[in-house]
Every structure is written in C-alpha cells, then in structure tokens.
Amino acid sequence: MADLYEATYTDPASLARQAGQLGPSTLPDVEGATPSPTTADAPATTASGTAEATATTASGAATQTTARTHTPAPARDARHQGALPTKRARVRYFAILAGMGVFALAACFALLAWDNPMPVGSEGFWLIANLRATNVAVIIIVAFCQAMATVAFQTVTHNRIITPSIMGFESLYTLIHTSMVFFFGSAGIVAAGSTSMFLTTVGIMVVFAAFLYGWLLSGRYANMQIMLLIGIILGAGLGSLSTFMQRLMTPGEFDLLTARLIGSISNAEASHLWIAAPIVAVAGAALWFLAPKLNVLALGHDAAVNLGLNQRAYNIIVLLLVSVLMAISTALIGPMTFFGFLVAMLAYQLADTHDHRYVFPLAWLTGIAVLAGAYFSLKHLFYAEGAVGIIIEVVGGSFFLLYILRKGRL
C-alpha cells in the first residue's frame, strides 16, 4: 500500500508550477510536510494564490488611480462669458481705452495751449483758450456723431465698408448750399451761416431720410440692399444737379461755395453748438440704450427674429437716429465721407469685440484723437487748417483701399 501511495501521490507545488500560477519563489517549502492523501489540495492552493495575486494587482491599480486623481491640474486662465471673456482681453481693452482717452485729451489741450503767450492757468491763458474752445467743442460733437452713426449703420446693414454718407446726406447738403448761392448769390453764403438755415438744413436731411426709410423698409417687400442702392442713385442724382448749377455760377460765387463745401472745423458757428449738443446727446443716449438690441441685430435676420426681436422696427429706429446724427455733423462742418469709416474700422480693430457697449466709447475717443490730431498738425505745423477735410478724406480713402485689398472682397 505504501508503494501504491507513493506512486499515485503528486506534489502540489509541481502542479502549481506546471499550471504557471505560482512562481518558485512564492511556493511553500513542502519538504517534510505531511502529504495529503488526495489531490484535492492542488486546486485549493492554486485558487488561493490566484486570489492573492488578483488582490495585489487591484490594490496597486487603486493606488495608481488615487495618485493620478490627486495630481493638481496645470493652471489655466479662468474664462467668463461676455464680450471680453478673459482677464487679458479686459486688461487690453481698458488699457487701449485709457491710452486713447489720454491722447484725445492731450490733442484737445494742445489746441488750447499751443502758441498761447500767457502762462498756463492764468486768467489771460483761459481768455485766449476760451476763444479756441469752440473748435474743440466742434471736434468732440462731430467725432461723437460720426462714430456712433457709422458703427450703428454698419450693424443694421451688415456691411463694414459703407458709411451713412452712402444714403445721400452729403449730396443733399451740397444741393442745399448750391441752391442758396445759385438763387441768392453771395448773400446766400451769409444766410447759410445763420441759425435758421442750420435748423432748416438739419430738418430737410432728417425728413428726407425718414421718407426714404419709411418707404423702403416698411412695405411688404422691404429690403435693406434695395434701400442702399436707391440711396446711392439718389445721391448721384442730387450731386449731378448740384454740379449743373455750379457750372452756371460766376467764378467768385463758385469759390465761395467751394470753401463752404469742403469739410472744415472753421465752418461751424458757435451759436449752433447750443442747439446741436442737446439733440446729439439725446440721439446718442438712445443708441447707447439700444446697444443690446444692436448686438442681436448684428447676428442677422434669422437669429434676431428667432430671439424675438422685431428687426424691421428696430432697423427703422436706428436708421432715424443715425440720420439725426449725420445731419448735425454735416450741417456743422460739411461733408466728410471717409471719416466715419476710418473711425469705425480702427475701433473694431482695437476693441477686438463686437459688443456695441465697448465699441461705441472707443470709436468716439478714436474720432476725437484723429480729428483733433489732424486739425492741430495742419493748423500749427503746416498752416493749412482749412484742409482738414481733404486730409481726412485722403487718409480714410487709403485705409478703405487697404481694407478691401486685405480682405480680397467687398
């Protein structure tokens, strides 16, 4: 029986090695141990070793997972919702806004203080500065009108390369003053500077715009592009009529009229500012409160309608406010076609946002800086203050061409 037992007995360690479940270093020393009379201990030992190995592996995996979970993530800039989503964008915008404001204030103060023989702060200094304050006030009002009107107009038309001048405001202004000189001669130039003529010019331009918008945007087949096209055609027709009357004038009358039709700060009368300032303030405040609506209008027709906005009504309201601002600006200093485009383009590039609450202030300060800087340079360095409109048109037209060439499309 002993021989039979020895022949049939198999070492459990040998079975484990054959199964590949336990390494030699982990096997118990079975030498001298009392062997089991059956082979049932082999599977039990194998199962125990497998359970221990599995538990060890799971414990190591859990430890690695915990270590990975508690590893701190790299620091990233916190993002927020809004027009300026990051802290860097907000710092950049307000730094540019402050810098533009400082430059605008410096340019305006230079207009008051340059070549002023009296000490700064003295009574005589302020007496002389008060005589020049009219030009500074005109610059501030005109820059406000052009900046606000152009940005709002480009929003409702969904076109960044056009200005409100495309609707024929400047052509109508030219026709009004040409008619005054054509029918009344040199006396018409004198009458053109009166307060009543200023109000008449503004009223005619606003009524003209209201009729045009009411006719082309309130019908069943209202279309913004058709309105712009008709505005261009009307502007060309009014310009041709003005040119015809200018051909029939005497050389002296034509010279007087030409000086009046070139945009210049000196064209403005101080008495007109007391009328223009309240009107401009009301129209500008209305556009400012409509800034959230303008943000929605900028998304396009479908998005605005889906968001519950009456797009047609707000388009007409905004365009009427734009016509008031453009009428005031044109009646004060004369035509400046590319000034609004230049200011709006620079404002969008510097602001790096489409939110009108941020674009409007920056556009206004940019307009003051550009207009005051150009007027100061031409008046005190080149002694050609009457050429401000010409220089603005040349610079603005050049930027317009560069913008088109860079984009490669209209």
UniProtKB/TrEMBL annotation:
One function term, GO molecular function aspect: transmembrane transporter activity
Region described as Disordered: spans on this chain: 15-82
Protein topology in the membrane: Multi-pass membrane protein
A GO BP entry: siderophore-iron import into cell
Record-linked Pfam families: FecCD
Any Gene Ontology CC annotation: plasma membrane
Major location (coarse): membrane
Transmembrane segments: 93-114, 134-153, 173-192, 198-217, 226-245, 273-291, 312-328, 358-376, 382-405
Coiled coil (UniProt feature): none
Composition bias type Low complexity, residue spans: 32-75
Family listed: Belongs to the binding-protein-dependent transport system permease family. FecCD subfamily.
Protein name (Swiss-Prot/TrEMBL): Enterochelin ABC transporter permease
Organism: Brevibacterium luteolum
